[in-house]
Amino acid sequence: MFEQTINIDRMEQAVALFGTFDENIKIIQNEYLVSVTVRGSELKISGDVENVSKAVSVINSLLTLINHGEALSEQNVRYCMSLVNEGSDQKIESLSGDCICITSKGKPVKPKTIGQKNYCNAIKQNTITIGVGPAGTGKTYLAVAMAVTSFRAHEVNRIILTRPAVEAGEKLGFLPGDLQSKVDPYLRPLYDALFDMLGAETYQKYLERGNIEVAPLAYMRGRTLDDSFIILDEAQNTSPEQMKMFLTRLGFNSKMVITGDITQIDLPSGCRSGLKDAVRILKNIDSIANISFTEKDVVRHKLVQDIIKAYERAAERKDRNDSNKTFIERKSHNGQN
Known about the structure:
Blueprint: E1 2-7, H1 11-18, H2 23-32, E2 35-39, E3 42-47, H3 49-67, H4 74-85, E4 101-102, E5 108-109, H5 114-125, E6 128-132, H6 139-152, E7 158-163, H7 179-198, H8 200-209, E8 212-216, E9 228-232, H9 240-247, E10 255-260, H10 274-281, E11 288-292, H11 302-336
Parallel strand pairs: 6-10, 6-11, 7-8, 7-9, 9-10
Antiparallel strand pairs: 1-3, 2-3, 4-5
Helix pairs in contact: 2-4, 3-4, 5-6, 6-7, 7-8, 9-10
């Protein structure tokens, strides 16, 4: 049995580290099969040598986050473990202290993963940023946070949020009400993010002044968008023609952020995704950044990560089976000839 000690400066650190009902430490103990106990100002970690070393690295990483004012959650703990397991725990330091925006309720919005930090930095440094990745990686929420920050700093005069009005595999038929009522269901995720950042009253005030615009993608045609922060959400559901139309709306002193998940395309069968085309065509142009998220950047429930991994494995198996089937068919065809 190997044992290692970590010194704790303040009791508050130990309380934050262990979490409610010791939930954070239990995750580490179950992952590495180690025992963690508190003796005065010391943490004792005992178990297998390699596992103790990894558990110590995770705990030190979590203490770094605590010292920078982070409130730990299961997501923080599991993300630190994933970085330690791949030997990248030194990257944790770079996550500390970066507050993008303060919500209407006073909550700081910060990148929670390396992928999210790279995404935010790309938005700051580039005119157009394309963020592609699975659900739950914060693509839309962080983009809205960056937009609100630019607006509050008077770097832009308008925030424009748009997405294609494509139903997710369902035919909802004709919706009642005026134009705004018809498009609201498609734009609800964008409203939710703006309400969180600005509050309902402030949002309504800016909406009436024309400083905020939320509209379907079809309403972008023929416009030139100057002094604006423009976000295109669910871009995987654009056609190549729509994507080209959107990109060419860019005006002076404006930024664009394009987000989407190429594994959740709701276009009719046989239609190409404009997002896929844009990633391929624009990859070598200056001031255009392509950021790819993985399941490690998911900041929702742990099951979301597991679901994404399961679908990825299923897709890989399907690709292999399709390749084998094509090879056998070709071989059979050549044999007949």
